[in-house]
Amino acid sequence: MTIRVFLTAFAEWGILVYFLAMQLTHLSLILRAFFSIRSYLDAVGIDRLDTAFETSHYKPITLICPVHNEEAGAVASINSLISLRYPEFQVVVVSDGSTDATLQRLVSAFKLQPSQRVVRNLLPTKEVSGIYESAYVPNLVVVDKANGGKADALNCGINLARYPLVCCMDGDSLLENDALLRIARPFMDRPDLVASGGVVRPLNGCKVTPMGIRGIFLPDSWLARFQIVEYLRAFLFARVGLASLDSMFIVSGAFGVFRKDLVVAAGGFETATIGEDFELVVRLHRYLREGKRPHHITLVPDPVCWTEVPEDFRGLGRQRNRWQRGLLETLWRHRSMCFNPKYGRIGLFSMPYFVFFEALAPIIEVGGYLMFAWALWTHSINGTFAILFLYVALLLGVLNSVVAVVLQEISGHRYQGLKAWGLLLFAAVAENFGYRQLTVWWRLKGTFDWIRGRNTWGHMKRQGLTTHPAPEEPPQA
């Protein structure tokens, strides 16, 4: 068989088989997600959240919020956290070597004073230089430590955590008022639950006050609108579908609740990786499977965490490059789990899914484009077949995005009005023509950067969360 014939056969059949397998998998996840969300909403409708304050079954939570040079939005973010509805919780803010006025603004806003609180060394971290507490907000602790990265900051927060559950999040994120009640609810029903994830959505365009979000609106930037659709697609059908199959493989670092004892037993967050959230979840699966301990990790479709997303191509490209490198790094580190029946569904389904349909997708997709272009140029492939294939590929891509927007309406729509609905649907269609190809290119570049050993974090320019002055005195928790 000549090289030309082989390449033609691969272009026509190899990529076609891969594409059909990926789309059928996505279709099955969509169906699973639809019925899972409906079942969840029916259950929540019966079990009202208001009863949380009348029961002792809700476990107390420590929220850990790492911040590094977040002076623009740290006060607004912490104000929103201490105002959350939950029976009993603690907020630990870890200033990870901030060199701007982050710590000073927190000290001023919350009337913080140095504390003699002792730090338990459950997990090794960089040196802690100061701990601060407030008479105004008794459940708030602020830690000043040497810079060690987000994973190190989270480990420091775990050392100071008072309660059996820890909620890990980003410093620029805002939680909806009842988000903790919703994300912690599964821990009442399942004693073997290890972690529970929530849905993350772009904050851009929303009206933010020092007390949190006071208006949800679409951003003016089409780049941010495309990311809204992308986040909906990732969370509301991919991750909800995986969770319904008991194959949840990732909990977003922006909003996830974990059992503290198991995180400590597994070694805490890995500081030598750029994808610490993904790596921890995979390691927890591995640790518990090897110990033959039954466990579950889930995702709840309606508690929402809002986070700022890049509105410039350079920042977005760096972010997607970093995500791809973090994905590859974790999959390679735990490669022995792939297709290993010892790890059950995680080894036989979740790991192969992320390897073939996430990690290798940029290489295969770009390779497919190049193969089809070459085959058409040399007339070694049927032109009608190629055009029909691309047409079906785009159509299914649009369908996935539109379904994600529809699932957003089912799971509790946040964007009000026909105009917002229409703009989201338009974005769901338009993002398939240019934007998704750009993300593939950034992820492909991230793949080659990982192969070359690049492990830098990258910087994202933030606009900041606060739009109004902070109050003179913080509210009581």
At a glance:
The chain has 477 residues and is an alpha/beta fold.
Task: Quickly count the helices.
Answer: 15
What is the rounded distance between the termini? 73 Å
Characterize the main sheet: 10 strands, mixed
Number of strand segments = 12
Question: Helical content, roughly?
Answer: 40-55%
State the shape. Answer: globular
| SSE order | HEHEHEEEHEEHHEEEHEHHEHHHHHH
Segments where pLDDT lies below 50 for 5+ residues? Answer: 466-477
- Mean pLDDT across every amino acid position: 87
Task: Tell me the fraction of residues in β-strands, as a range.
Answer: 15-25%
For the largest beta sheet, what order do the strands appear in spatially?
A: 3-4-5-2-1-6-11-8-12-7
Query: How big is the Rg?
Result: 23 Å
What structural class should be given to the helix and strand makeup?
A: alpha/beta
Protein model, in words:
The protein is globular. Strand 1 (61-67), helix 2 (74-82) and strand 2 (89-96) form a beta-alpha-beta unit. The chain is of the alpha/beta class and 477 residues long. Helices cover 50% and strands 15% of the residues. Helix 1 crosses helix 12.
Strand and helix map with partners:
Layout: H1 3-46, E1 61-67, H2 74-82, E2 89-96, H3 102-110, E3 112-114, E4 128-134, E5 140-145, H4 150-160, E6 165-169, E7 173-175, H5 179-184, H6 186-189, E8 193-202, E9 207-209, E10 212-215, H7 222-244, E11 255-259, H8 260-265, H9 276-290, E12 296-307, H10 313-333, H11 344-359, H12 361-377, H13 383-410, H14 418-430, H15 435-451
Parallel strand pairs: 1-2, 1-6, 2-5, 8-12
Antiparallel strand pairs: 3-4, 4-5, 6-11, 7-12, 8-11, 9-10
Helix pairs in contact: 1-7, 1-12, 1-13, 7-13, 7-14, 9-10, 10-11, 10-15, 12-15, 13-14
